[in-house]
Design brief:
single chain; alpha+beta; Hypothetical protein af1432; Growth Hormone, Chain: A; four-stranded mixed β-sheet; 20 helices; globular
């Protein structure tokens, strides 16, 4: 053991014990400490001001819940070694370490086609190398390659520790009490059958509540129309900045962020050269806010308008439709702003656009949630006869959000 254990006071779960040694070494590493500077919910605080918690909070909470889940499974007679417990806690601790600034909002803006889970694996591999292979088992669990599948289900599944923590944590910090779940109740109902995760039949209503909470939180928090507007403005802002730098413009930005505007990095770049991974590990939300503040006074109208809108919370107007409005109608809306502001057709695409959002609380088939009946039968939770709500939640619902500037925002901007 190279580090002593600690106890922290978490506002959601209370006192959390962090064991010394390997887990504390990983937490202390700069790769993980960076998560303190990445907010869990991106720009959701523009709707729910209390949603200021970070990926660091969430990862520590998930590690704590993993310990509780494994202890409950031990009490039910399932052998879990201390080495497996440490590996599982490390796997969930590092499951989000690959997130970039503003979490999901900029996942395809700073890097192209590199999902955060892939980046998490690259970070895990690098840490494993630095720690002399001590993360081998944790990596296997993260990848679903460990010989006991339930460990990977606890890390990444439809009823995983990640979701249990973020639902409870996001409810707490957003203040949306309707989405609250009982994490302890759910964890106490978990069991193992043929080395796969199942839920005891008496916990079926807790699972229904869990799925209902997830569905509600998506519509009321994660996909709230104002949140979507703010995050899409940020995405369009980064897209505009890339277009300008690609045409030779020099934009003010931090030294850490600049390399990611000079070239497109792919997954292979981070695998082949640790220097690229170290560079990515230096960027966080603060780099993006520096850019936003700097670009408010940029002579490019689109860049300046979007930056000022985010700084002053002058967000794009949102209309929600059940079907796509069609390219002709979208082009008509864009032409209205082109003539009034002297924008080109290409420039108007940054200010008027359509975004598809979808919500499905439970996807039956594949990585299912299984119920173990009192008779020992294993069945998909969606097939529980007295829970019609779960059947409804298994249906994907799509909405189409059209964003465009508010006339009052354009008038105020023009007057500055």
């Amino acid at each position: 053991m190279t580090s002593k254990g600690k106890i922290i006071n978490d506002p959601v779960h209370g006192f959390i014990s962090i064991p010394g040694g390997l887990i504390q070494d990983v937490i202390d590493h700069p790769y993980f400490q960076r998560l303190r500077r990445i907010k869990q919910l991106g720009l959701t605080d523009m709707v729910y001001p209390g949603a200021q918690h970070t990926r660091f909070h969430h990862a520590i909470g998930a590690m704590h819940l993993m310990g509780l889940a494994l202890e409950n499974l031990r009490h039910k007679g399932h052998p879990i070694s201390r080495e497996e417990e440490t590996a599982a806690r490390l796997a969930i601790l590092l499951h989000d370490v690959g997130h970039g600034p503003f979490s999901h909002a900029l996942e395809n803006s700073i890097l192209q086609d590199v999902h955060h889970e892939k980046m998490s694996l690259v970070f895990i591999d690098r840490l494993n190398f630095l720690l002399g292979g001590k993360l081998d088992m944790a990596r296997d669990m993260f990848q679903g390659q460990y010989h006991r599948p339930f460990f990977n289900q606890l890390v990444s599944g439809q009823l995983d520790i990640d979701r249990i923590d973020y639902l409870r944590r996001d409810c707490f910090f957003s203040g949306v009490a309707e989405g609250a779940i009982s994490a302890e109740r759910i964890l106490s109902m978990l069991d193992i059958h043929d080395d796969k995760l199942v839920v005891e039949e008496k916990g079926i209503y807790s699972i229904e509540n869990f799925l209902s909470s997830r569905r509600l939180m998506y519509w009321q928090v994660y996909l709230h129309k104002t949140t979507v507007s703010a995050e899409e403005m940020l995405i369009q802002l980064m897209r505009r900045a890339r277009a300008l730098t690609g045409s030779g413009a020099r934009l003010s930005m931090t030294a850490a962020l600049e390399p990611f505007f000079q070239r497109n990095f792919g997954w292979e770049d981070f695998i082949s050269d640790p220097a690229h991974l170290n560079a990515f590990s230096l960027i966080d939300d603060y780099d993006i806010w520096y850019c936003i503040k700097s670009w408010v006074s940029n002579p490019d109208f689109v860049l300046s308008f979007l930056s000022r809108g985010l700084m002053e919370r002058r967000l794009l107007k949102v209309n929600i439709f059940g079907q796509p409005i069609g390219e002709d109608r979208l082009q008509e809306l864009r032409e209205n702003f082109q003539s009034g502001l002297g924008l080109s057709a290409e420039e108007s695409t940054y200010l008027v656009f359509e975004k598809e959002v979808s919500n499905s609380a439970y996807i039956s088939g594949g990585n299912q949630i299984f119920i173990k009946t009192r008779q020992g039968e294993i069945m998909d939770v969606a097939n529980a006869t007295d829970l019609p709500n779960i059947h409804a939640m298994a249906t994907e619902v799509k909405k189409y959000i059209v964003c465009q500037p508010k006339p009052i925002s354009l008038h105020s901007f023009a007057g500055k």
